[in-house]
Write a structure and sequence with these properties.
Length: 215
C-alpha cells in the first residue's frame, strides 16, 4: 500500500487521551509516504506535575503546549517536499484551546484564549479533521495498555470532560471537513482488516461539515 497518494493534502487525527491518534497517524504516513507530524508531549516537564497537582500546574502546562505546538506546526507546515507533499498529524492546533478550557479557571482561560486566537490565524487549516471516538471504558483500557505511569490515575470524569469539550468545539468548526468515526468495535492498531476499513473511510471524499460514521 506504500507510495499511494492520499486524498487530502493535510490530514489531522484527533481524539481523547488513549484514542490511538499516534498509532493511526504513523500507519497512514507509512502507507501513503506522507510527512508525519507527532506531538512532542513526552518531553513536556509540566505534564507529570499536572497529573499530580492540576490546579498548580495547569496554566504553565497549557502555555508550554501552546508554544511547542505552534513552533512545531509553523516549522513543519512551511516545508514543501516534492517527494512527500502530503502531511498527516496526530494533533490539531485547536486541541490547545480544548484542553485549556477543560483545565483552566475562567480568568486564566480568558487570557489564554486571546493568545491562542492571535497565533492560530497564521496556521493553515487541515483538509480533513478526523476524530476517533471511543467510549470511556475503552479509553481507560488503552491508557492502561500503553503504561505511561503519569496517566494511570486519570479519572473517568476527566476523560468525559475532555470528550465533551471536543464535541462542543467541533460544533463550531463551520469551515472544515470533519469526520467523526466510532471505533469502539474495531482494533485498527492490531488488526490489518480493521485498519484497512478505517483507512478507506478516511480517504473518501467529504464535503465541508460534520460526517459521523461507525466503523
Amino acid at each position: 500500500m506504500a507510495n499511494k497518494q492520499t486524498l487530502y493534502n493535510f490530514t489531522v487525527i484527533e481524539g481523547n487521551i488513549g484514542a490511538g491518534k499516534t498509532t493511526l497517524a504513523k500507519k497512514l504516513a507509512t502507507d501513503y509516504n506522507a510527512r508525519l507530524i507527532l506531538e512532542q508531549f513526552a518531553e513536556n516537564p509540566f505534564l507529570p506535575k499536572f497529573y499530580e497537582n492540576p490546579e498548580k500546574h495547569a496554566f504553565p502546562l497549557e502555555l508550554s503546549f501552546l508554544a511547542e505546538r505552534y513552533q512545531q506546526l509553523k516549522n513543519e507546515l512551511n516545508i514543501h517536499d516534492l517527494f512527500r507533499p502530503n502531511i498527516v498529524s496526530d494533533y490539531f492546533f485547536l486541541k490547545s484551546l480544548i484542553f485549556a478550557q477543560a483545565n483552566l479557571g475562567s480568568d486564566e482561560f480568558g487570557l489564554y484564549s486571546k493568545l491562542f486566537h492571535i497565533i492560530n490565524s497564521s496556521l493553515p487549516k487541515p483538509d480533513l479533521f478526523v476524530y476517533l471516538y471511543h467510549d470511556i471504558e475503552r479509553l481507560q483500557e488503552n491508557i492502561k495498555k500503553r503504561g505511561r505511569s503519569y496517566e494511570q490515575q486519570i479519572p473517568d470524569n476527566y476523560l468525559i470532560k475532555i470528550q465533551t469539550a471536543y464535541f462542543e468545539f467541533i460544533k463550531q468548526l463551520n469551515e472544515l471537513r470533519i469526520l467523526i468515526v466510532d471505533v469502539n468495535n474495531i482494533d485498527f492498531a492490531n488488526s490489518e482488516r480493521d485498519y484497512n476499513l478505517l483507512q478507506e473511510l478516511i480517504n473518501k471524499p467529504y464535503v465541508i461539515g460534520i460526517t459521523r460514521i461507525t466503523a
